[in-house]
Amino acid sequence: MTLEVGVLGYRFIGTAHANAMARLPMFFPDAPEIERSVLVGRDEDALTEAADRLGFASISTDWGEVVDDVDVFYNLGPNHVHREPSVAALEAGTPVFCEKPLAPTLEGANVMTEAAHAAGDDVPAGCAFNYRFVPAIRYAKRLLEDGDLGDPRHVRGRYLQDWLVDPEVPWSWRTDADLAGSGALGDLGAHTVDLLRFLVGSDDLAGEIERVSGHLKTFVDERPVEGEAETRPVTVDDAYSAQLEFENGAMGTIEASRFATGHKNDHTIEIHGSDGSLRFSLERLNELEVLREGDRGYETILVTDEDDPYVDHWWPPGHVLGWEHTFVHENYEFLSAVANGQEFEPNFDDGLAAQQVLDAIERSDDRGAWVSP
Amino acid sequence: MTLEVGVLGYRFIGTAHANAMARLPMFFPDAPEIERSVLVGRDEDALTEAADRLGFASISTDWGEVVDDVDVFYNLGPNHVHREPSVAALEAGTPVFCEKPLAPTLEGANVMTEAAHAAGDDVPAGCAFNYRFVPAIRYAKRLLEDGDLGDPRHVRGRYLQDWLVDPEVPWSWRTDADLAGSGALGDLGAHTVDLLRFLVGSDDLAGEIERVSGHLKTFVDERPVEGEAETRPVTVDDAYSAQLEFENGAMGTIEASRFATGHKNDHTIEIHGSDGSLRFSLERLNELEVLREGDRGYETILVTDEDDPYVDHWWPPGHVLGWEHTFVHENYEFLSAVANGQEFEPNFDDGLAAQQVLDAIERSDDRGAWVSP
Amino acid sequence: MTLEVGVLGYRFIGTAHANAMARLPMFFPDAPEIERSVLVGRDEDALTEAADRLGFASISTDWGEVVDDVDVFYNLGPNHVHREPSVAALEAGTPVFCEKPLAPTLEGANVMTEAAHAAGDDVPAGCAFNYRFVPAIRYAKRLLEDGDLGDPRHVRGRYLQDWLVDPEVPWSWRTDADLAGSGALGDLGAHTVDLLRFLVGSDDLAGEIERVSGHLKTFVDERPVEGEAETRPVTVDDAYSAQLEFENGAMGTIEASRFATGHKNDHTIEIHGSDGSLRFSLERLNELEVLREGDRGYETILVTDEDDPYVDHWWPPGHVLGWEHTFVHENYEFLSAVANGQEFEPNFDDGLAAQQVLDAIERSDDRGAWVSP
Amino acid sequence: MTLEVGVLGYRFIGTAHANAMARLPMFFPDAPEIERSVLVGRDEDALTEAADRLGFASISTDWGEVVDDVDVFYNLGPNHVHREPSVAALEAGTPVFCEKPLAPTLEGANVMTEAAHAAGDDVPAGCAFNYRFVPAIRYAKRLLEDGDLGDPRHVRGRYLQDWLVDPEVPWSWRTDADLAGSGALGDLGAHTVDLLRFLVGSDDLAGEIERVSGHLKTFVDERPVEGEAETRPVTVDDAYSAQLEFENGAMGTIEASRFATGHKNDHTIEIHGSDGSLRFSLERLNELEVLREGDRGYETILVTDEDDPYVDHWWPPGHVLGWEHTFVHENYEFLSAVANGQEFEPNFDDGLAAQQVLDAIERSDDRGAWVSP
Lengths: 373, 373, 373, 373
What we know:
Four copies of one chain form a homotetramer. Chain A is an alpha/beta fold. Chain A has ten helices and 16 strands. In chain A, a hairpin with a 4-residue loop joins β11 and β12 (251-257).
């Protein structure tokens, strides 16, 4: 059986998923057979061009029809478009793969998660936190779960970009609260929160995030509208930071910025446990720095050996992978779950859990006090 | 005229200052002439041995007598011993060089600072924040003051050690609230707060720290007493973190830990400005990473050129300095100020300002809310 | 018109090229249309499986038939199979893309290059030195050609692997002189020599390599045959080093090893010019370290900006590429050249030039004296 | 008994040794008591100033008198002054500590070594290769001798400076063959050759260097004379490289340059053994990168723990040492050997052995062929 996939969204992230699907047969021959069936959007000309380039069989400007027809629905649109089509698809019993953050608001995330629960366990509802699928991150999780680092004490996450440093960079949906929900917090912080939950969120390690103290900041209050004389207000954060306390006593600091001059896509994770430490940086995503009990310094591991996660599907040791491979891995796992009617993680519960933390960070910033997610 | 110097304290930090004084004639020939006159402590045998090794002419177990007799008084004892002898010296018109943090409590720091003001401008009262005297840090300050990095947006400071990870490490004055005031916060955080104030604290840059949100944590609640069967409670923090907001709008995160497995003395500073960024790490103290306008990445600068701060006193380019050189530089500046009856910075005002931030971090942690220093 | 491509070889490198061809339509929409038409090999079962996985329309065990039938012929077999099919294809007027090193012997490379010349300029004969197509390497070439680094003085290249450290690793065609020509020298050194020629080989820079002093070494003289009780002699080098002198006076050292414990695929290039320096490492292939006139240290550049070579075809800044992307770039350039009847570089002349240097290194090692290529 | 030390030379290296001697009592209390007795040179005014600054009791312009009078003689003058005073001192039974390279020519080094042998074992004749006394280098030697890295296969050494890149840098004794012997080869290469001999020169490891292939280059043929209108020819090498073969089969490449743009004092050593690898860089001299059997990457070790070589004399873990500390360590060892009438290494035999390799590199460059030291 071939799974017919409908995809809403065809820009940056849409291309990343289309590419991922296209590469499965050559590198993951046991992945289910799929057809890139229909590409969904509003602008017919742009859609036609994109469908041709990305290898889709047809286009549609009406997601309402699509969610019923296809075997799987990918929701890769802007944040404010995540809710309705995803819920409709789930109500139709169609598995959904939705980009992060799950929704601009906690309320939206709740509604979506309820829809996922209502659809049942055999209708996977995945939230596309692709960084869980970096081989080095999977390897890190293995170390943590095996207890190699002991009890987590300190956790740090940082996602630095600089594309808004120039005040002349134009307004976009990403700088608008109604369309995006939040700024760096939702766009980047969602990734950080999910990675920390993935790595140390189990009860045996640090557990869930129990309380947070948040700080949001908008450095430039209004931005020009592209091609127009007017400006529009920036209604989201340019940067956020937060302090965390985990259930089992670990403490953390996380932050993200679109104003970190010189940093393009610099997502770093650091963990100190009672027996060891680790460091990861997305800009060197093939590497993991690990310090185990008895070590005197960090070992810089190139996570490209045959028995490293997913690596046997690709190239010999030392032949590095890129950012896009994370999408191939997550598409493989998600589509396999769909084909087998099995659960997939990260799912909407994970998307909601991240959203709850982001929401708590915003509430904490409002109140000037610690709050619980 | 030869300045007679009396020094209270002769262990780790006492040695660092004695060594610094001993090296001035060879490398800073224009430094005032001094005599390591009297070494002050409680244990006569240990004192005698230390005075011999560190080159002091005499010993005393009574600081009360010393502070009057000498031309300069160094207070290098544990935190709870900072207040009384320093105040007595200042009341006697004797310049004081006191280790950080200025005092275990804000009240103590206030009293000491008042004594410094009462003594007058020609009686320098220095607070020995030695990391201001790292050549790379001075070079960083120059860049910031010249506006090369623009307006600071993000500031980060982190001081990581791991000597308490093992729960069997014994109790000491450093783990006791009455003797030390606080733990990682006062011991390490004082350095971080002072460096940030030094680097971006001017009105043209980020200004002073306006409000903080703090988080303190003690991972191990009691520790064995060395050589005894009993344990004693740990009454200070093992680690702290804080979020900062500066007067001019910059945001910051700082933290320190004695539980950062694998890190021995890892003090890092990072700043992102509107035009550039910089990074510094104490474990590679000869280096500064700088990204200026138009650069595409950080430039790793070895700050050992002839025209770099203090470097012309030492060796040719590329011949690296060590941790102890910071003490030589600060002793040179402090003793020169004493000899010339001039002001020295960092002074007790700076020590107090740091203490106010540390105190605010503790208060914030207590209340679970942002507070102002 | 669709170009029908025939490919000999379907293992590691065959997959890299098949993947590259498969990705062109989505990321290089102006690439010529191609069909992966026929996959050539000896073992029908393995061929059938590979053709299915790699997306080929048919298979053949007779390259003699294929080279005539197809529009383009890729020769990706072991070194000793490079010569005959490539020459046959060129004689049939079929463009050829041949893996490196061009041939196991200089004589073979000469014959192949003559065949390429005889076929004429509109029949591209490419030698697949894929590392010329790393964006950071192209960017480095731009800097060198713009004169940003001045006159090259020192050139270094090093290609380190460790897969033969264990003496129990079995004998293979790669350790046999008749089948492979040479060992680390041909397999890895060919890449290094080509990159140096690409980067500094123009007359304006260092020019061609004028003389060499070589050193070859075999650490383990015989190896077990897989699945058999016997051993066979290792008749190629496990490692080589060479000193170089360039036409314009620059000096160089290059080396490669299969015995560099801990290094998997570590190809590094370093150049010091009269005005600046650069460093590149394949294991961090998205980065280039550059020191320009007036700089005090190397700037670590992430070569993923929109205007960096080939990057606009892929992802936004900071989203790193992997090893395999170099194949997509070279396939794009080669197939475009074929479609347009234009020249492609690196061509067989480049393959021969590299082979001449490798041959000189071997001759030098034999004689214990410097020789000219 | 106090050892009276006479020192010839008071500039850069003279200061390094004077400082080292001055620091012994505080940090190496078991070092023999010494007096910086007499400073020797030609210019009385400069001598007087230097003796005052460096703490010498007297001056002399006649080394002939001094070598008899003192208990120990330090020869820290330019290379061409090494021979005569050192031989005279040894003939007088006075222990000698001579800077490297031992002599400008092999003949000079031979004569000096014969004088050392004639003086007998209880008259130490040390050659001041200070980099043997870097804690990280001692630690590396320990690993190698314990067999942690197995049999050395590859050895690399590189000493990069850039102070001659500008052709306007004036002529000096360092660019003249009669006064210096050679250029980068003798000045920098001597250090590299000695470190390799120290680390892997024992019979159990790689053994001595058996044959070499050398390459010398002078990029700028004449230089202006400071303060004069004329230029003088540069008669030494600006850079050299060499390939090495060791007795036990290891291969090596070494090089040095005064034309490595951007590098100030960058001495690096790399070793790959059958079981592990290591890397060291002088500009980060507190660090050693080590890969042991079973490791997947290099561990970056900060060699500042209490049980690391010499570290217990200094500061707590993580408080880094500088370049000058190597002189304190070697002075401690040398003066202790003098006081105890024991042998000291590196001695004149080591100086001669290094000189033999340097001489072989020059002869090899002349002949264009491999030669044996």
